[in-house]
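Case 291 in the screening queue. Each case pairs one protein sequence with one candidate compound; here the compound is iron/sulfur cluster. For every case the pipeline is the same: read the inputs, emit a complex structure as tokens, and attach any notable structural observations.

Predict complex for case 291.
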Amino acid sequence: MNYTGPVYRPPYEANTLLLQVTVGCAHNKCTFCTMYRDVKFSVDKMEQVEKDLQEAQEKYPKVKRVFLVNGDAFVLSGRRLKAVAEMIHKYLPEVEIITMYASINNIMGKTDEELADLAKLGIGDLWVGVETGLEDALDYLNKGASLQDAYEQLERLNRAGITFFYGFMFGAAGKGRGIENAEANAKLINTVKPLGIVPTTLSPNEGTKLAKDIAEGNFELATEREVLEEQKKTLELVDVPTYYMGIHIINTVSFDAQLPKDKQSAIDRVDYVISDTDDLVLDSVPLRHSI
Ligand code: SF4
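Case 291 output:
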């Protein structure tokens, strides 16, 4: 299989066939992200995609799930994605779901008819990095879309029948705003009802605008206590059935839970860590590695 530059996928896609259709990230401007910073965005030729699918057919003929890499593969036009999906079904007829990272902007770039067509071809379980439900924080993180766009575009996915996971970050709004961020995320989650919610935690990766702003005193990261209180509040406020998918290693208290069934045990788990951790640690900002 052909892979160019760094390849990221959600931890939950560890057993999924990774098929490269783009290199890098078309947006590549988020305030906090270094994932594809040094990679020039490009689109793979269909001949290359077909070659990879021929190889996959030989090695993994029974595969049921395909993840399209890289950073925002849903940026491809509806027509291109349709052609890729049809080619996947030709070579791997047992595939049920074709998933990938997607941004709110990527959804905006497709008509309702295109979205419906893609849903019929098995495109779903999109990993949508919304990051925060707070307008000003979203603006600062430079995701390239507004909060109103997020509400509208995620509802468009619902209407088209495309399932999705809501990616967000604890601490996204900075120091002193964890509860506010939890309330804003929960409001958006409760409105758009994602299949799952996928938290990570904001961290200052070297070379980013975020790291620079922190060094210059223009942004303050949330303390560990605030991050944990935000996690707890999010769990308390989400009141639609969804999967809490929080195993990313960047999260201090990482676990999965089925909501609402596991809500109380999930809250208790975070509470236990808060009560069992020294104040010195809780009131500090721990170093976190890059996502
Ligand atoms: S967070 Fe996602 S959309 Fe933003 S620059 Fe990084 S890979 Fe691209």
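Case 291 observations:
- The chain has a mean pLDDT of 96.
- Residues 25, 27-30, 33, 35-36, 71-72, 103, 129 surround iron/sulfur cluster (CB under 6 Å).
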